[in-house]
Amino acid sequence: MVTLLFPGQGSQSVGMGKALVDVFPVARRTFEEADAALGFSLSSKCFEGPEEDLKRTELTQPAILTTSIAAHRVLLERRPDLKVNFAAGHSLGEWSALVAVGALAFADAVRLVRERGRLMQEAVPLGQGAMAAVLGLLPDEVKAVCEKVGAEMGQVVVAANFNSTEQTVISGSAAGVEAAGRALTERGAKKIAPLPVSAPFHSPLMAPAARGLAVGPRWDRRVHPKREGGHQRGGPAQRRRLPDQGPVGRTSDRPRALGRDRAVFGWSR
């Protein structure tokens, strides 16, 4: 059984995708398709930076998606016999998984994640939000500290991603995350590692972005009949689905996209 797992924000770096483009024409064509869909040279930002630009979420998201799909297409070209059973992703990576299984056209996905990034940054201006990985404490301890710090300071800071019993990612206002980091260190955390992201993803501060993406002028409001009643958060956006080319994972000869499409709305736990 083969499962594809696609990365999310924080995995970007200057030069991403360049090694693939230099060797594989299909990767070069993928970046060219992204450039054409967006109307500017995303490829030059990926290959040359600067890093500060690449960390801005409206660039980070299409950059990681494009690099992921370029790698996926190279894999399929070199292994045409490979049978993929499942595809999944970390947050933004769920969009890459949807493209990989044919549920969303690549050009549409690139434009949508750029708009998603724009709305996320608009919800929390640059420098006002933060995320950090907490190593060496149990998730319940991290959650309790975040709740205490948030209540005492009147700031938003939450345990947002539970990567393992030894690693939890916290997210919220820059002041809240900094204060929680100090409190968690005092509690015994081995390390507090700030993430190279430009907004507090997977926190309630992303709610305005959820609403904007759900009702924006470029959003296709079709409802996927087999996914109604899902567990997305975000009010009226609750049952919105990405424009797709058919149901995902409903036939035996198609790979299945795992998850609950939470990445569409930008925050979850």
Summarize the helices and strands and which ones pair or pack:
Layout: E1 3-6, H1 18-23, H2 25-38, H3 42-48, H4 51-54, H5 57-78, E2 86-89, H6 93-100, H7 106-123, E3 129-135, H8 139-153, E4 157-164, E5 167-173, H9 174-187, E6 191-194, H10 207-215, E7 256-257
Parallel strand pairs: 1-2, 2-7
Antiparallel strand pairs: 3-5, 3-6, 4-5
Helix pairs in contact: 2-5, 2-7, 5-6, 5-7, 7-10, 8-9
Name its key features.
Alpha-Beta Plaits; 269 residues; 3-stranded parallel beta sheet; 43% helix; alpha/beta
Brief summary:
43% of the residues lie in helices and 13% in strands. α2 packs antiparallel against α5, α5 runs antiparallel to α7 and α8 crosses α9.
Describe the structure.
This protein has two domains: 3-123 and 207-264, Malonyl-Coenzyme A Acyl Carrier Protein, domain 2, CATH 3.40.366; 129-197, 2-Layer Sandwich (Alpha-Beta Plaits), CATH 3.30.70.250. Helices cover 43% and strands 13% of the residues. It contains ten helices and seven strands. The strands form two sheets. It has a four-stranded antiparallel beta sheet with strand order 4-5-3-6. Helix 2 crosses helix 7 (106-123), helix 5 packs antiparallel against helix 7 and helix 8 packs across helix 9 (174-187).
